[in-house]
Design brief:
The structure is a homotetramer. Chain A is an alpha/beta fold. Helix content of chain A is about 40%, strand content about 15%. Chain A has helices at about 20-30, 45-55, 70-80, 95, 100-105, 120-135, 160-175, 185-190, 200-205, 230, 235-240, 250-260, 265-285, 305-310, 340-350, 360-365; strands spanning about 10, 60-65, 85-90, 110-115, 145-150, 175-180, 205-210, 220-225, 295-300, 300-305, 315, 315-325, 325-330. Chain A starts with 9 loop residues before the first strand and ends with a helix. Chains A and B meet through strand 1, helix 1, helix 3 and helix 11 of A and strand 1, helix 1, helix 3 and helix 11 of B.
């Protein structure tokens, strides 16, 4: 490894390793001594909400700002469901496996659907709901009432507009809420080939959120509620779950900055381009991917020996063991990733090179 | 009102109307592009925790950083109690009346004790526990297992060291946890006449927290767990309740700054002095207080007419109607309050003067 | 004490010391080997529900059978409320102090109202709701959404028809559910001076239940839901809380028997008459009551010395210490109480006599 | 169908279609007018508990009586786990799919393990626990702390003594509780080839229960807690979840009868023998089973046409569609099944005969 001598490690393990984008920071500095009402009832929040509603082309939406993703997921789900209802979710969904049972802690079952690419299909949803409704003992099982999807998914894949329209249609026909977790939404909406807009999401989802934590903010998720029923009394739920920041304006200030002059989208697009550079090198070296991707997350499958060498200079994330000598790992870029860091990683990858990998059968499946 | 012409309102309604102290802000700026691990496992958090443990003279304590007070209260209480156990609390306690049932939402009953000054006594605790234990149907009632106190209380009053020692002794004898909510702890520890230190709290409480949100930080509460049993697996609970900030280092950076060179205490002391100036003017004008106080919160009782005039230039908080023509209200100072704002308020108070108040009987009780 | 020689103790401590009325037992024996579907979907339940709906003059009501009172209370409340909502209740209410926090365990706060006689007034309800709605920080407090009353109350007192009509009116005006716990409803509806009928309850309450456990059944409470919104999916909630008896027909069989030929009311009326006999003797001997009563529960205040003597032959229930030498206790009659037992107790009371009681001031208040 | 003319349907769909065994009923009749303390603190419960502890050869066990299975499962699990902990369970487990999310409603995630025969292996448990512990983000996932198994399983299969010993060993090594749901335990312990005793269960499980509802009682499950930590305050949990029967002696009376002269085991053994007679006829006619079995539940796979004919005279339970023309169904015998009913079913099965079934590939897998 060229770069490890005396250098600090380079973090590619996630998209929240730094603070916030300079324009967000500047906005926080500029507003620091302004006095405002607390708990999100200030002018900054109102202005940021206004910009979001405009981008969503949905004046009647409610916009609420919460601090983090798990908090947002549990608050939205607990507010929406009655006690006997559950939420359908890909087995890879964040609420299923990475939130310490936060949804269950509010009393609701996560009803998992199998998925290899992080997405679920309208057919899976209607099959699950119909199976429940046709079961003569239906009252002995949890009633599906919400569909949770992430876009981009936890595996970096994207729903197309057509897929979302179909999911939305099925949800409405069956009387289910469609909830989209947009923790990394910026990277998705800015990705090559994406055909979905905020206005589409506002039209197709009952509730979704625009993630700030991973896209340029210090923290913060902007929840957009388009379904009037879900909007009733929502602030009580935020408070009850400890998500109502006393200095709520911090969220307004940040989202106001992000939604000004397209900052949110431009910084995400840049991160996607850097990810593409990495993607190209992995391809060039013949490494397969766990799933194909177009956003800021990559899941290449590499030999343990390569990963051991990389680990001396780079921090990445373990995803899944593939066979006795290969693992899928995750590399992320972000609004903060530098071209220099990407170049260094690309150079080191090429230096190590494709060391005579003998792929096992399972790998060939991908 | 002298100052209302063309001027913005002055906020005395709470201690979270601005952003953060300049040294905290500087620390956030300085660290903004440093890459760190997420979720509080970074060097900044470690350093801040180290400083806190040193101040607490308690190397074995665990220190965790959470975002806000309600979140901290619900997380600590839910982590500590088994399902049939409840928490004793003054009827004025924040968890009882100002957190939208957050504790109940985790399944636990708040067992209220009467209080006029926001404090509870060791005798109230032992009476409640003994009544439970002597009840032949004790299994039909919630088992008291924790005592929740705030210091300063929600009414700005303070526990003395002697009172805390006695409460702590009773809790230990009865096998209850003592949990101190220190959302405004800085103002308390810096108050005239206070004889309590962080080291005392670490010695006397099983768990307590040092509030940052209201004492100079953008947000953040530092939980100090001294009881080894309560410390087990605590990070799971933080995550489950959505309190684990992805960029956890933001909390470490802020508390590191606050705990450097006594910043936390000096800014609180200054706010207390400003509050004393206000207190003196209320006294001078003959207005009584709902409760006596020495910290940054004042609860004067004023005629509606005076309050109506004040409301033209100042924002304050409604506390309680006293009789048909008087209300108790709350004025707060904070680390951000300016001498100019206090001077303006004092001048306006004197200008309005004591307009022939005829106090009702109830007022004379105070 | 005359009767203690070689005799077993006589239980007056509650109304569930025996099994069930002989006609209920006979119905269980008669149906024992009949095969039916499980989980309450059998002919017996349908027939019992039909009789109850007829008595309630409410064909559109849903009738569900649950096993016990705590289970019924927690199931109804959890099914009705959204997470941020709470239930208003007299401080003496069963859900507040005698169910081990069962309501809180489902996530909801019990919002207590002061009461000396076990009842709450329409004014208390509207005051509490209006205080919540007028609070500028209303979202920081639990939203009252249901009123829970017991009739007869835990102190044996009764609501008049006029009082219930007024409570119902206030609830409807404010958008609250009125829920009546009728664990001892039979004794109330059969009491001297009662002017309330099942049809009144069906008209005035959104949901109420007819208690079987304490009025002739082995166990069982018949929930009558008249509000269509509360009725939706109610069986899921019963199942989720473990209240759906596999052999649900046991509940149907028992309520069918109780609702046949007025058995439920006649056995309650008889118990009330026996209680009146006891009441007359306490009066005759000059003992005051904690609260006046007309149902099967009596709360006389007696000197400790008298109680000590009584305790040698009778089991009764401690209610409250009145002063250093007097306690209020509870005596209950039931469908199973024999005339002989009442006669024995009356005789023993007279034998002990009014031993020079010097009542303290507090007693004279009652 | 021979028997359908004018006859009522014969229920083979479950083992709770009737009331209770005559000796249980006699005991309820005999004790009906005896006065006892409430809530399970009576002599009948004490005596039944004593007999169970003797059979378990475990004097230090706690025995508690609850009304039903779902209630028992949720109470035991909620009492045992801290909020961030979950329970490992076969995907077929009753708590996973047939209790309307009762466990999740208490805040805990059910962590499913794949299973074809209703059982889980020690290796599955240790793999799941080790995967959790090795996960660098372990605090972001639910901590496995309990293993839930059913014996017999929901598919009628049985654990051998060796399998239970190994599961128990793994649980102890890993610090997990082993909880055995014995809703149909009698049928299991009385089955051909079973080598497990109550004493074994008391030795190997931390908590288990002896099901009464499906084995001769009107209702009731006897929980045996052998782990002292799990036993602490258990009655509070029963009360909180609405499982504490006011007339608790009804449970004691029934279990006392069942545990006298081996009644519990002899009636289960008889039901197993009747099931064997049915099993033999299905085999003789060439119908395969979804899983092999030795207890009172059978899961034959039959052509839709045969099932349509059977449905005219018999009630059975749908289990699973196998292919476009075959379904697996469940037939149950019980303590109440008559020889005549079994003979009628066998005769009708033979009369219909094996109508040229052409099994699909999937069927041959079994």
């Amino acid at each position: 490894m060229e770069r490890k001598e005396g250098m600090t490690m380079l973090y590619f393990n996630n998209d929240y390793a730094e603070g916030c984008h300079e324009r967000v920071l500047q906005a926080l500095m500029d507003s620091n001594l302004v006095q405002t009402p607390g708990y999100g009832q200030d002018e900054y929040c109102a202005r940021a909400a206004g910009k979001i509603k405009e981008l969503c082309q949905c004046e009647n939406a409610q916009v609420h700002f919460l601090v983090g993703g798990t908090q947002t997921n549990l608050t939205v789900i607990a507010a929406a469901l009655r006690p006997h209802q559950g939420v359908l979710c890909a087995v890879t969904g964040h609420i299923q496996g990475h939130e310490t049972g936060a949804v269950e802690a509010t009393g609701h079952k996560v009803l998992t659907l199998p998925s290899r690419d992080g997405k679920i299909t309208p057919g899976q949803v209607s099959d699950a709901v119909n199976a429940h409704r046709r079961d003569p003992s239906f009252e002995h099982t949890v009633q599906p009432k919400m569909v949770y999807i992430s876009n981009p998914t936890e595996l970096g894949t994207l729903y197309s507009l057509g897929e979302l329209e179909e999911l939305s249609r099925v949800c409405r026909e069956l009387g289910l809420y469609l909830f989209l977790d947009g923790a990394r939404l910026g990277y998705g909406l800015s990705a090559r080939g994406n055909d979905v807009t905020l206005a589409d999401l506002a039209r197709l989802c009952h509730v979704f959120y625009i993630g700030g934590t991973k896209v340029g903010a210090l923290f913060g998720e902007a929840v957009v509620i388009t379904d009037p029923e879900l909007a009733v009394d929502f602030r009580y739920h935020i408070k009850q779950h400890g998500g109502m920041l006393a200095k709520g304006r911090l969220l307004g200030v940040q989202f106001d900055a992000l939604m000004t002059d397209g900052l949110y989208f431009s910084i995400a697009a840049r991160a996607n381009r850097l990810a593409d550079q990495l993607r190209a090198v992995f391809c060039e070296l013949g490494y397969p991917f766990l799933v194909p991707g177009v956003t800021n997350q990559l899941f290449p499958i590499l030999p343990d020996k390569v990963l051991d060498q990389l680990a001396e200079g780079y921090v990445f994330c373990e995803q899944e063991r593939i066979d006795e000598s290969h693992r899928a790992v995750r590399f992320c870029t972000s609004w903060a990733t530098t071209q220099e860091a990407v170049d260094a990683l690309c150079a080191d990858l090429r230096r190590i090179g494709p060391i005579g990998i003998k792929f096992t059968t399972r790998l060939l499946d991908f």
